Amino acid sequence: MANELTQSVTELNGVGKAVAEQLEQMNVHTIEDLIWTFPYRHEDFRLKDLAETPHNERVTVEGRIESVPTVLFLGHKKSRLQVQMLAGRHLIKVVFFNQGYLKNKLEPGMTVTVTGKWDRGRQVINGTKITFGTKDEQADFEPVYSVKGKLSQTKFRHFMRQALDQYGCYIEETLPTELLEQYRLQTIQQALEGIHFPKQLQDTKQARRRFVYEELLHFQLKIQALRKTRKEDEKGIAIAYDVEKLREFFDSLPYELTGAQKRVVNEICTDLRTPHRMNRLLQGDVGSGKTVVAAAMLYAAVTAGFQGALMAPTEILAEQHAENLAMWLEPFGVRLALLTGSTKAKARREILSRLESGEIDILMGTHALIQPTVIFNRLGLVITDEQHRFGVEQRRILKEKGDNPDVLFMTATPIPRTLSITAFGEMDVSIIDELPAGRKQIETNWVKHEQFNQVLQKMAHELRAGRQAYVICPLIEESDKLDVQNAVDVYQQLATVFHGQYEVGLMHGRLKSEEKDAVMREFSEGKLNVLVSTTVVEVGVNVPNATFMVIYDAERFGLAQLHQLRGRVGRGEHQSYCILLADPKSEEGKERMISMVEVTDGFRLAEKDLELRGPGDFFGRKQSGLPEFKVADLVHDYRALETARQDATNFVASEAFWQEEAYAPLRRVIESSGILEGERID
Ligand code: ADP
Ligand code: MG
Asked: What residues are paired with 279 via a beta bridge?
């Protein structure tokens, strides 16, 4: 039966070599390919009342021709035909370009149906389609496909009609009847008919609903099957940590953990104890206290006789972690070491040998940790900070340095749930959604660029009080195309303004990483008062004395990134400020600025960002980790995603699913993905 569908499209009447080539450009080779090519939108041909149609909107009206058409020749085979028409109570003009042949077909008194764009001011329809007679015989909706070359929509639809009539019955239903009934979903045949040949709007909606659910269910089944195999895999390490010692550690802290910190500690501890390999994502807004959680978990591993590793994306961050962990853990006799690109050869050799012999309990550092010469004695737990900065490959290497160690990824990017269960669906997720008590909110203001002098005064005020300031610029070089403030320019301007008073530093992506670290170090030691920087400063740097941040061209950033940047201030006891310099042109840009001023919660901002900019922009173009969906849309179909996820989880956990015939098609979805043989999605 499958072979009926995998036949070439040339089996269809009218599809010869030329048409087949055009179809090939649309990636359509087989009959099945054709059937699964969905329209990207549906044209609405329902009749509308012109009185209620806004300017520039597409409209279909029925009416009577009232004049003899006139044709104006514009040269180069171009022409403009105009005719008067009475549509309801409206006497309007209808214009068609390059369709001079209509002149002889249109006569006063005829009834026609016209579709086109409504120019309300001039009372003109710029026609794209005309049919003779009343609207009755036409479908209300017509699918529009992204056809290539000379292939017309009409022809494409004609082939589709044939394909569905002759081969539609061979398309297999993957959803068991119980699901179709439970959610009142169309069968596969109904849905294909509805998406390709809708009679009314409801048809396309119902069809889409079915395909969205099916697509998300298939996706979730693969993910949940993967999670299940991992959970059942007993080859990981069971870390039998010392509860008493861990308690002593928490008691030694100058503060009590927040409720959210306690909750995630429990979640992670459960993973540590069990023999399956932990693969967990720890999300927590900037300043939510992830580091202390990481320290506690590493200590837990140490109390069970294992080594731990903590990897950070930059040297300065690795150093900050090293300082904190030394302060917290050395009193408990934990032996720590820091390994980065700037560790001297002799020290490095010593660290490596002590690591291998097991005399170092916790190794912290940058990606220097994943070099082949770094050999652990008994690695039990790996934690990576700001995980989105590490490539998948680097994460894998680190994981393989032990015998299936538990792995915890930390990120300060709040990720909306829909994206997190899609991009990181095969991971367990822990969330710290609460900030330690007593944090002062960062006062955020949005001002126009022309008000920069006032901003400068406010900055000077903070500097006089002994505080420090960040100035963030989007790009490092002048560009003709983008009217973007240049970090170097801003640096020079500020250096002149503050000359003899305050030290200004400059950091951007073109600096070598040692240079970046050196500048960052000077800033964190207070030798620089102002740091002009591109967004390289974004990753978890902690300079509690910095209380003032100016972000140039703030409208160029997404909300998630603005929030990350803003999180660099407000880390100490002093009131902090964030000034957004922006003259956004679009409504969306304005809305983003307003959200930043009004909303401080990273998760709410992330949801907003997703809503405003869509999933593609959320993680940035580079490594989105997001699968591409054919019909589903992560912003609008989040409920379906939740449902599909729940159903998939229940399925893979049930006996019946793995045995009964009704579920065979769904099982094949999992089997064909290779997941059960241990292939991974990431
Ligand atoms: P992030 O999650 O951004 O990495 P950090 O771990 O750097 O946050 O924590 C920010 C600051 O909050 C640190 O100075 C840390 O010691 C402090 N901190 C962490 N947990 C608590 C808590 N429960 N109560 C008070 N302060 C805390
Ligand atoms: Mg951090």
From this structure: 407
Distance (Å) from CA 317 to ligand 2 centroid: 8
For residue 283, report the distance from its CA to the centre of ligand 2, in Å: 10
pLDDT tier, 254 (very low <50, low <70, confident <90, very high otherwise)? very high
Given the structure tokens 């992506």, which residue do they identify? 509
pLDDT exceeds 50 at position 1: no
- With CA atoms as reference, report the closest residue to 629 among 208, 281, 24: 208
Tell whether ligand 1 has an atom less than 6 A from the beta carbon of residue 257.
Answer: yes
The secondary structure of 522-539 as a DSSP string is HHHTTS-SEEEE-GGGGT
Backbone angles phi, psi at 665, to 5 degrees: -60, -40
Q: What is the mean pLDDT of residues 60-79?
A: 89
- Which atom of ligand 1 has the smallest separation from the CA of 257? 23
- pTM greater than 0.90: no
Distances in whole angstroms, Cα of residue 161 to Cα of each of 9, 64, 173, 210, 233? 13, 33, 20, 20, 49
Around ion ligand 2, residues with a beta carbon closer than 5 Å are: 540
Q: Which ligand is closest to the CA of 539, given by its number? A: 2
> Could you give the residue ranges of the DSSP H alpha helices within 274-377?
290-303, 315-329, 345-357
Q: What is the CA(290)–ligand 1 centre distance, in A? A: 7
For β-strands 428-432 and 279-284, DSSP reports them as parallel
Q: Which residues are bridge partners to 130 per DSSP?
A: 114
Q: Which ligand is nearest to the CA of 434?
A: 1
Identify the band that residue 74 occupies on the pLDDT scale cut at 50, 70 and 90: confident
- Pocket lining: 413 vs ligand 1, CB cutoff 6 Å: no
